[in-house]
Amino acid sequence: MDAGVAAFGGAVLAFAGTIAGQMLTQRGATRARETEFREQEASRQAQAAAERDASNFELRRACYVEFTTATRQYISSMNHSIRMLRDQGYDTPEFSLDEAKRIYTDRFSELQLTAPSNLHHMSEQLNRSLARQYYEVKKLAADESPAAGVRAALKAKDRLWVEYEDLLLELRRDLGVE
Fold this sequence. Notes:
This is Secreted protein. The protein is mainly α. The protein has one domain: Up-down Bundle (Four Helix Bundle (Hemerythrin (Met), subunit A)). It has four helices and no strands. The mean pLDDT is 83.
């Protein structure tokens, strides 16, 4: 009987060992699947973040290009208007200056929504300077003898270009262009 009990005990132990081994193997496989799932999820999230960053970068880049183009056009329109007043002494063509101002204003609004906050101060300063210059040009156009004002406006336009170049440099830095 001892041999029978020993055989039965051995069979029970073998069976329990087999079951325990299967349970441990299954548990290990489950952990491996969970780890793989977490790694895949982290990879998907990292890829989505990278795509979002790339999309935001392209959005900022496009906005900066449009803003700088509109700003150059606006400043150039004001310069052209000032030169016309200086050389010919009559009203400037309203459409080109006003249209350039409208386009600039639209692009400035986009910049305010797109650019990081560190660029807002510089862009707002440039915007105020452009507004002052615009109203000076309009005032000169209405003046019957704008000669003195034209000289002051010509000096002020040089400051506009400096402010524009400073902002342009910061926009380029934001995009990683040095």
